[in-house]
Write a structure and sequence with these properties.
GO terms for molecular function: peptidase activity. Residues 49-60, 411-436 have a biased composition (Low complexity). Residues 30-64, 398-462 are annotated as: Disordered. This protein has helices spanning 2-13, 17-24, 63-77, 93-113, 176-179, 202-207, 212-229, 233-239, 241-259, 280-349, 351-368, 388-401, 428-461; strands at residues 80-82, 89-91, 116-119, 123-129, 132-137, 140-143, 150-156, 161-165, 167-168, 170-174, 180-182, 188-199, 263-274, 373-374, 409-410. The protein is α+β, with helices and mostly antiparallel strands. The chain folds into 4 domains: 2-109, no CATH class; 116-156, no CATH class; 161-275, Band 7 domain (Tetrahydropterin Synthase, Chain A), CATH 3.30.479; 370-412 and 424-452, no CATH class. The longest helix has 70 residues, at 280-349. The chain is rod-shaped.
Length: 462
């Protein structure tokens, strides 16, 4: 590259200066690659002494002379002329003007190129002219007038940005001046939260506030301090954290709209709400008790959800059973009443026959539900064994069955091995008159009752 530049410079300066005179004089011009380039063969100026008396063309080039010749030609290119042999250069107005034009054009192009800028997707560019809004550009390649006439600023409108209050980057990096807040019951809590927001109006975001992020942080801190001061400590620590975050988002949005910040509050996240470190242990115990209370309440609610449906089902079943029993009793009573009505009609037709039939049916019902002992009178044994235990058990079973027919109970023969003193004894002569007396007494009583009823009914009919 330097060699080609030097060649072009030599070619341009060939018609002028001493090279033109040399050409007129028939002096040959050498190439830059020629070792004799820059040397005058007719003069001994600048020649290196040759102790061996050799030809100049046979020696190596003089680097110092080469460098001086290069500087001379470079000065001539940019408007300098030599006043004579070895004299100083004089400025050339034409060369200076051309050089200034080229340099100025290059500087102008560089200055104009500095006005180009690229806006990424999801961003907008705001162009200002002397600090005043000029226009808003979209994504892509854009151009504006370079400084100091115009400037631009890119604003990201698609990304959700986050600012922290009470901490920075990590909850352990606390900011006590922002985090410590006073509750409504005059307790101190350490509140650390973050605010997520998006830029919805880039022009308002850039021009209406000087420090936008700090303004959002101050607004959020003010709102949360007010809400914490309106609630008790237990509400802030345990039960009302989600509600507090929702109310804080709405209040911060209203404040941002009042300040015309051009921001949309996406959400508020409560990172940490806890008592100060000095009383953290005591509040931890209180928190465990609170969790135990909640757990016990949950278990009680689960037990109630299990027992109450069972009790309701049992109550409904009892009501159904009672209703069925009532219907059964009513139907039985209705049937008995209808039967008695029919009996009355039959009794009016034939009182004696009806009375005997009723007596027989009653005796059949009574005797069928009682225990009976069959005694063989032809046996020659004078002692009769009555199994009282079996009779009592049979009587109890008959009473429980109520109407179930029972077969006769045969009296077992007496075991000779058993002593007679432990067995209740009765002679046939004594047992038979007693049984006949009881039967005759029962029949006479029933006959007397039936006759009394008949007499009463006849009197009523009369």
């Amino acid at each position: 590259m330097p060699v080609s530049l030097i060649k072009r410079i030599g070619a341009r300066l060939a018609p002028t200066g001493r090279h033109a005179g040399a050409r007129k004089a028939g002096v040959p011009l050498f190439s830059l690659n020629d070792p004799r380039w820059g040397h005058n063969p007719k003069s001994n100026e600048g020649r290196r002494p040759n102790n061996n008396n050799k030809n100049d063309s046979d020696g190596p080039p003089d680097l110092d002379q080469l460098w001086r010749d290069f500087n001379q030609r470079l000065n001539k290119l940019f408007g300098g002329k030599r006043g004579g042999d070895g004299g100083p250069f004089r400025p050339d107005a034409r060369g200076v003007g051309l050089t200034a034009t080229v340099v100025g054009a290059i500087a102008l192009l560089i200055w104009l190129a500095s006005g180009a800028f690229i806006v990424q997707e999801g961003q907008v560019g705001i162009v200002t002219t002397f600090g005043r809004l000029s226009h808003v550009t979209g994504a892509g390649f854009n151009w504006r007038w370079p400084a100091p006439f115009q400037s631009h600023e890119t604003v990201n409108t698609a990304q959700v940005q986050t600012t922290e209050i009470g901490y920075r980057a990590n909850v352990r990096n606390k900011q006590p001046s922002e985090a410590l807040m006073l509750t409504g019951d005059e307790n101190i809590v350490d509140v650390q939260f973050s605010v997520q927001y998006k830029i919805k109006d880039p022009v308002a975001w850039v021009f209406n506030n000087r420090d936008q992020v700090e303004t959002i942080r101050d607004s959020a801190e003010t709102v949360v301090r007010e809400l914490v001061g309106q609630n008790k400590m237990d509400t802030v620590l345990y039960t009302g954290r989600d509600k507090l975050a929702m109310e804080a988002r709405e209040a911060i949005q209203r404040l941002a709209d009042r300040y015309k910040m051009g921001a949309e509050i996406v959400g508020v996240t409560m990172q940490s709400v806890q008592p100060p470190d000095q009383v953290a242990a005591a509040f931890e115990d209180a928190g465990k008790a609170q969790e135990e209370r909640v757990r016990a309440r949950s278990e009680a609610q689960a037990f109630a959800d299990e027992v109450i449906p069972q009790a309701k089902g049992k109550a409904a079943r009892l009501l159904q059973d009672a209703e069925a029993y009532r219907a059964s009793v009513v139907s039985v009573a209705t049937g008995n009443a209808a039967r008695f009505d029919k009996i009355v009609a039959e009794y009016a037709k034939a009182p004696a026959v009806t009375r005997d039939r009723m007596y027989i049916e009653t005796m059949q019902q009574i005797l069928s539900s009682t225990s009976k002992v069959m005694i063989d009178a032809k046996t020659g044994n004078n002692t009769i064994y009555l199994p009282l235990d079996r009779l009592l058990a049979q009587s109890t079973a008959n009473e429980a069955a109520r109407g179930a027919n029972s077969g006769p109970v045969m009296a077992p023969q007496q075991n000779p091995a058993q002593p007679q003193a432990q067995q209740p004894a009765a002679t046939p002569a004594q047992a038979q008159p007693q049984a006949q007396t009881e039967v005759s007494a029962g029949e006479s009583n029933r006959t007397h009752d039936l006759r009394s009823r008949d007499t009463g009914r006849e009197r009523e009919s009369r």
